[in-house]
Amino acid sequence: MIERIVLACSNLGDVVLDPFAGSGTTGAAAMAHGRSSVMIEREPTYWPIIEKRLALKEAEKPATVIHGDVLTEMRKMAEGSVDIIVTSPPYNLGESSGGGFKGSDKTGKWTSAKLRDGYDGHDDAMPYEDYVAWQKAFLRECWRLIPDDGAIFYQHKNRVQNGVLRTPHDLNPDLLLRQIIIWDRGSGMNFSKAFATPSHEVIYVFAKPKFRFRKRHGLKDVLKILPDRGNPHPAPFPVEFTYAPSAEHYWMHGHSSETDFIYVTTNSLTHEQLAAMSDEVGPERTLLICCKAFQGGNADAFGNLTIRKIPGAILDRCEWGKDDYSLKIEALPLIEDEPEDDVDEAPRRKSAGNPNQPGLFGVGEEVEP
Q1: For residue 30, which of 16, 270, 293, 318 is within the disulfide window of CB 3.0 to 4.6 Å?
Q2: Residue 123 scores a pLDDT above 80
Q3: Which of 129, 121, 112, 107 has its CA nearest to residue 47?
Q4: 269 and 191 co-located in one domain
């Protein structure tokens, strides 16, 4: 998803800022397509993840990671110093769910979710008025940092709390809203039979007047992308894989970064096969495996593997065992054109109303059909 946004609204060499960097997905997408990246992250837990993911020890990498508080560090940056901002703040779910996260004495609804652990330095359960004030101050800083043709892609979500709708509109300090993009996650968590399962989030595009997407950008206002489930961050951006099979490693069918790969098979995998792949992948890389089924019970047994079953409904609709899947179109004989009879054009009818009354398009004006 982030790659689509970066490609649609920036050019080679542009600077992309993510003030809530998390595990570095925005930075990875920007660097993969020739952009520079600036990331701000306050949580020490994610610093080594970002550095490993982006291989930042190489001096030529066009990326800067700033360790510190988001508002404090943004206020040090020069006005108009970045081209676009792509980010997603903490959603304050601890407060809105009535449960809280780390540091809260409430049990909440998230006891079995990764979000239950929250963030090391932020429990994501601020009083709502304080959260609104914080986000408004944050968005004002974002607006200051982009140029006259810049834009902010601000991912958040709508929520209904006690019959009241809370949206990112509440957080907007009167910035110019250009568009709202829907992220269809395809799945979600539901805590009550009174509600349909929430499975979408929103991206607010705050843009200055001169901002334009690139020609033939192809970005739509509904993005259907599954969330990233193999990420240590509690709420990461989704990633997309590029098809790039390797002649050296059978399990490298594609990649989302220099160290993250995907392997797809319609076979069932044994625990021994998974162990062998885990050893070959090694501790410096990760592999997403999509398979028919796997044995061994625990899908989290291997730290560098993320295992997902391919739904049977998808497998049943696929064709297998063919060498050529190209579409064959029969060369049908052409139908000779039949001669057309000359048809006189129907005369135009004058209005049967008052000839002195002007028509809809003015007196005496004829309208071409």
Answers
A1: 16
A2: no
A3: 121
A4: no
